Amino acid sequence: MEIDYQIDQNIAIISWNMTTSAMNVINDTSLPEFGAALEKAFDDAAVKGIIVTSARPEFIAGADLKMILRNQDQAPKEMLEVSMGLNRLFRRMEINGKPIVAAINGTVLGGGYEVCLACHHRIALDNPKTKIGLPEVKLGLLPGGGGTQRLPRMIGIQAALPLMLEGRAVSPREALEIGMVDEIADSREEMIQAAKDWILANPAPLKPWDEASEKTGSIIAKDNYEVPGGGPQSNAGAQVVAASRAAVLAKTHGNYPAPLAILACVEEGLAVDMDQAIEIEADYFVQVARSKVAGNLIRTMFLGLNKANKGASRPPGIDKTEVKKLGILGAGLMGAGIAYVSALAGIEVVLKDVSPEAAEKGKVYSRKLLDKAISRGNMDEAKAAAILDFIQPTAENADLLGCDLIIEAVFENREVKAQVIGEAEPMLAANGVFGSNTSTLPITGLAALSKNPGNFVGIHFFSPVDKMQLVELIVGEKTSDYALAVAIDYVRKIRKTPIVVNDSRGFYTSRCFISYASEGMELLKDGVDPVLIEEAARQAGMPVGPLAVTDEVALDLVYKIASQSIADGASTESDTSYQVSKKFVELGRMGKKSRAGFYEYPENDTKYPWPGLADIFPLADAQPDIEEVKKRLLYRQALEALRCYEEGVIRTKLDADLGSILAWGFPAYTGGTLSFFDFVGTEEFVKECGRLAEAYGERFVAPASDMLQ
Ligand SMILES: NC(=O)c1ccc[n+]([C@@H]2O[C@H](COP(=O)([O-])OP(=O)(O)OC[C@H]3O[C@@H](n4cnc5c(N)ncnc54)[C@H](O)[C@@H]3O)[C@@H](O)[C@H]2O)c1
């Protein structure tokens, strides 16, 4: 049984208590049981009202996303019927005649909150950790259990739209302020008592959008319900919808169907009565639930992300390890960031730099981040002090004695790295692991400097470390499964997402990212207007255009990487990124840090394209269609990822997909670099690669791959 049923003083208490799933979720098992429990209460003449609650810590986490993914292949008619089944149940809750109260004991999201919306009254347990909301949009879906209809009818379009379009979840207190819940209670007992009191005081509740039929006395939908603040046909309502649509389009460029569908549900559904409205919503739900975008977001950004966070790439058969004492070499930008996230996770950190002052500076970085958290109300002084206490700044190697893991984040220079590896490695605890945060130096080469290359692994963080969720772990030729397991356990402990790749020039993420930057330069060389290049990138869903992002990374770094690549025989001087970066370094235009790159950066925080660009890259008379530019930028990255896969740099499709979205912002709606082929259609992809290769060069030739079958 997934749902408990109990009668208390003539009130039915229906508790979600799922045993077949890690959390209470709406699925093929729980929903029919919930429906049956409700019917039992409706049919029992002695039952005066119903309390819906949960016996687990959460109330209901939402719909079962695996089920939604499975149902993607259903015929639209079949899916519509399932969706209407849910909606008919929720509608029956509203009009059955008996009062139903949601006693929200913990987090309630998506379809779970739609259960609450179908109740007549909502009381939440006051717990700041509880989250209440409709986050469907984040997974390419819309609230398909009447949420797009009931929430705006309850709290107005202006308040409801941002919650549904951003998918933001709120605490019970905020929910009370907004009107998403009606009361909050301090304890479970108080909550249940308040629910009982409400039921007794409201024996025949009526939703404001319903009325008793004059003819039959039964409850029916009103056709003249006035939405608080004005419906979609009022001036105010129409304006809010139009402004929201403009904002959605500016942000998503139409790549995500769900927010537009939510707006359509509100606009069309709130203009008719509740019974017709839920049919409109169900139609839109089926459209978005069947979309490739929803499938991609659920697969990569929810199920895949959860899998990776649980350590899907961890080698089997190795006992769980724990880093209790961590050494960090180099207290610069990266070292200081790594110290902060590790201390936050309760790990004792020894932060070493060349002088006590330099090491202390690294610790001050954490102090500043903690102060910010305190000023935002997310941290208290005592906790901040305890976190800071975990960081011991030092200039002495001896303090590293007994570390389970040491991560070096010193200058990107092989000699400096060789020196610190030699000095620090002997301080490791027995079977301790050495990690390098290098961004460009091959791990196998660095491991050769170690006395124990089996325990040497690449641990590549991204900047800023406190904000970037991904960590790319690099397996060198000799890296043992044990060292990889230690690295994965550590990354999980600091609550980041690990992906695992094999050693290669630029590993996986830098290599694909460079292909993006490089295609921006190729486009410039072809005489494409830089404004068009950057706009095409944004419209394709990249967070920053290739020229602006290259300026941020710095052209001297691109030059250094391209030169090294030539020195190692991996590319030639004809390489465009080499030629362009060399030219810009000669001009002293290193990018944002020198306030001059592809853009000019005046004193304030603004930028504009450098007018001198046109002298170096004269504009072509005929500019390409923006779709062609978008295609070049996205295909180039996906092709590089595919080469990584075929060369064995990438071990799993999931790691490639997640890495691309989380490391450099490849658009999530595609599902990631290796899901991109399915998104476009493999046949179409191969055909287009052929055309692009003919038009622009062999970098667009697709490698033979089972991914393209
Ligand atoms: N900056 C990034 O975005 C980024 C991203 C990923 C990886 N990385 C890599 O991380 C490493 C560090 O980069 P960063 O940006 O933090 O550099 P940084 O210049 O900010 O910091 C390097 C620190 O190392 C210290 N150092 C130098 N020699 C040392 C020694 N012998 N012992 C102890 N400390 C020593 C320096 O004093 C300095 O504080 C590099 O390998 C870099 O490639 C950087």
Automatic annotation (TrEMBL):
GO terms for biological process: fatty acid beta-oxidation. Keywords: Fatty acid metabolism, Lipid degradation, Lipid metabolism, Lyase, Multifunctional enzyme, NAD, Oxidoreductase. GO terms for molecular function: enoyl-CoA hydratase activity; long-chain (3S)-3-hydroxyacyl-CoA dehydrogenase (NAD+) activity; NAD+ binding. Gene3D superfamilies: 1.10.1040.50, 2-enoyl-CoA Hydratase, Chain A, domain 1, NAD(P)-binding Rossmann-like Domain. It comes from Persicitalea jodogahamensis. In the central section; belongs to the 3-hydroxyacyl-CoA dehydrogenase family. Pathway: Lipid metabolism; fatty acid beta-oxidation. It catalyses: a (3S)-3-hydroxyacyl-CoA + NAD(+) = a 3-oxoacyl-CoA + NADH + H(+). Residues 325-503 form the 3-hydroxyacyl-CoA dehydrogenase NAD binding domain. InterPro entries: 3-OHacyl-CoA_DH_NAD-bd (IPR006176), 3HC_DH_C (IPR006108), 6-PGluconate_DH-like_C_sf (IPR008927), ClpP/crotonase-like_dom_sf (IPR029045), Enoyl-CoA_hydra/iso (IPR001753), FA_oxidation_alpha_subunit (IPR050136), NAD(P)-bd_dom_sf (IPR036291). This is 3-hydroxyacyl-CoA dehydrogenase. It holds the Pfam family ECH_1.
